[in-house]
Amino acid sequence: MARNVRISTVTVNPLPEADYNTKRPYYDSVIESLDRLLKKVLRDKPDLIVLPEHSGRQTSLVSRKTEYIEGESLRIFEFYKKVAKENNCYIAFSRYKKMADGTARNCVSMVNRQGEVIGEYHKNYPTPYESDSGILAGKDVPVFKCDFGTVCPIVCFDLNFEEIRKEIKEKNPDLITFHSAFHGGFMQEFFAYDTRSYLVSSLLSYKPSKILSPLGVTVATTTNYTPYVTARVNLDYAVCHIDYNRAKFDAAKEKYGHLLTIEDPGYVGAVLLTYEGEDKTVMDIVKEFDIELLDEYMERSIKNRKDNMEK
């Protein structure tokens, strides 16, 4: 049955230079700027808001970085918790988290609709210069259970590494949140496609943030004019190959009509099935028509190669 969720993502741009010179504390200006942005996002009543890596830091100045780690990131943390509770939504965001031993983590926190932290992820692959400043690598890849589905976060440099991608694929989350200062290019699309998960990127400094389907197709994106976007996605989905399935797709479409969407992005030989009915799930339809999933077809093809190898 349909599991529709409204997801918002934002690109956070640096504060205008004029705000650096005000007499009030710098991070008062940061919170005010974030509040203005989120009020625009919240008009769409999202279930989940995704924010970039260090959305509250806003500057590369070393003095500001120290100030941020030592206390101001905690202020912004409390601000996000308040917004989530007052607006009945989840918020996923990244911050530097100071640990009891004096080290720090590049940490993603997931806050629920009650303003409570339901899980945290520590960036598994910090860059060497992050490690030089006392930030240690995380060792776990948690999956957060939300009332709309499961979410697995990654941060910035993580996008480049096969090990974390494989682990996420094994855990099979409904969606991945990608909090980053760098864009990542086609690796965003590949990460979504390879894990068979929706991927929501949220970036800094004028880079487009996107919502990608499990086929790596852009569902929605921010632009140079509008740094936020909201889209509804159906988490009741299946990724299937077209080989041996064409007649089955036709039969399923004939029976379920407009309630069953078969999205074909072209060229990759795979499609995305989603079902908008309330009487069954898309996997019920997959079983009903004996439709082979993409991963099943890949596994069968690997076995086929072994069984038909040249001597």
CATH superfamily of the largest domain: Carbon-nitrogen hydrolase
User: How many individual helices?
Assistant: 8
How does CATH name the architecture of the largest domain? 4-Layer Sandwich
Mean pLDDT equals 93
- Report the strand count: 15
The first-level CATH class of the largest domain is given as Alpha Beta
CATH topology of the largest domain: Nitrilase/N-carbamoyl-D-aminoacid amidohydrolase
Return residue spans where pLDDT drops below 50 for at least 5 consecutive residues.
none
The total domain count is 2
Roughly how many Å apart are the termini? 49 Å
Structure description:
With 311 residues, this protein is an alpha/beta fold. It folds into 2 domains: 4-234, Nitrilase/N-carbamoyl-D-aminoacid amidohydrolase; 237-307, no CATH class. The chain is 32% helix and 27% strand. The chain is built from 8 helices and 15 strands. The strands form 3 sheets. Strands 5-4-3-2-1-12 form a 6-stranded mixed beta sheet, with helices on one face. Strands 6-7-8-9-10-11 form a 6-stranded mixed beta sheet, covered by helices on one side. A 3-stranded antiparallel beta sheet has the order 13-15-14. The relative contact order is 0.13.
